[in-house]
Design brief:
Layout (H helix, E strand, L loop, with lengths): L10 H6 L14 E8 L5 E8 L2 E2 L14 E2 L7 H12 L5 E5 L15 H7 L5 E5 L7 H9 L3 E9 L5 H4 L6 H13 L3 E8 L6 H18 L3 E6 L6 H7 L8 H14 L3 E4 L14 H14 L11
Parallel strand pairs: 2-5, 3-4, 5-6, 6-7, 7-8, 8-9, 9-10
Antiparallel strand pairs: 1-2
Helix pairs in contact: 7-9, 9-10
């Protein structure tokens, strides 16, 4: 059974149990990397991902740790294009570009609208540009930016979970109906969509974590998304560490991530990816971790079932 505390996990409480932010420079992104990802067309594409230094998101979600690398105020106009140019000089050529800004790309307090055209120009060498957004900022501005791009726009939205009691406790500030309407709006205007789904957010057991992640994938595809990315919930943001001490949160196992990915792939309704960032923290066995990691990576890229890893752990 789901286990909820007697206190409210609202924004004020979440901020009260945080640690310190990392120092950042508004002229520089705080991270960048290349990765490979299967495209909707079926090929294996090279991806350039950039972690933009930006202001903190106005939505204080319970599970989020992106606030750690944010500024205390909006970055000045022109700073985001400079960050993108800086990172692209460090990265290998790619066909897909992911721009993560620790919040919502279409939040005018995060990415100045006057920077859109320059960002689109810098992105002209890419076949697709992925940005993320809260449903509150999905609207005509998305269409304006999409028209500026040479390639296709894809918008990622955090669905997180469809658990009826848990979603409000995540302090997401979003309803399932709002998620569905945002996906319908984007898809009807030729903009591809991706959903982020959480594996074992707080207050759920391991079994419930798997069950509700699978149910959330079903809802995402029912809503019309093209891709689901499954993100195992990680401690370290303050709030989750506090909840872990009281027994309300525990990180999922790598085996649970395998189960959810296998379920999503088996639906054959769209692409499903497992987030492999810092994957080793979810494993307790040194013998089978590398084979499991390799298997998850193969399934991500092939989108086909791969035989399970056998281990007596």
């Amino acid at each position: 059974m789901s286990n909820f505390p007697g206190f409210e996990t609202d924004g004020r409480w979440i901020r009260s149990v945080r640690g310190e932010k990392a120092p950042v420079d508004p002229r520089l992104p705080y991270g960048w990397f290349n990765e490979k990802e299967r495209s909707l067309q079926g090929g294996i594409e090279e991806v350039s991902a950039i972690l933009l230094t930006n202001r903190e998101c106005p939505f204080t979600c319970l599970m989020c740790d992106l606030w750690k690398h944010t500024t205390g105020k909006p970055v000045p106009a022109g700073a985001i294009p400079v960050q993108i140019e800086y990172a692209l000089k460090k990265l290998r050529p790619a066909t897909l570009l992911k721009l993560y800004n620790s919040g919502s790309f279409f939040d005018p307090g995060a990415i100045p609208v006057e920077d859109y055209r320059r960002i689109a120009s810098i992105s002209s060498v890419f076949e697709q540009v992925l940005v993320e957004s809260h449903t509150a900022f999905v609207g005509e501005t998305c269409l304006e930016f999409s028209r500026m791009l040479k390639g296709q726009l894809q918008v990622a939205i955090g669905l997180e979970t469809i658990h009826p009691e848990l979603l409000p406790r995540l302090n997401k500030g979003m309803t399932l109906e709002e998620f569905k309407k945002s996906v319908e709006f984007l898809q009807s205007n030729g903009i591809s969509t991706r959903a982020f789904v959480l594996l074992r957010p707080p207050f759920l057991s391991e079994e419930e974590g798997v069950e509700w992640a699978c149910r959330s994938i079903d809802f995402a595809f029912d809503s019309g998304v093209d891709i689901c990315s499954v993100i195992p919930v990680r401690s370290g943001n303050g709030a989750l560490d506090h909840l872990a001490v009281d027994g309300y949160f525990k990180e999922p196992s790598i085996q649970s991530l395998e189960k959810v990915l296998d379920y999503g792939i088996g639906l054959n309704r769209g692409l499903v990816f497992a987030d492999l960032w810092d994957l080793e923290r979810f494993s307790v066995c040194n013998r089978c971790f590398e084979p499991r990691k390799e298997r998850l990576d193969r399934v991500n890229l092939s989108q086909e079932a791969v035989g399970p890893v056998s281990c007596n752990c």
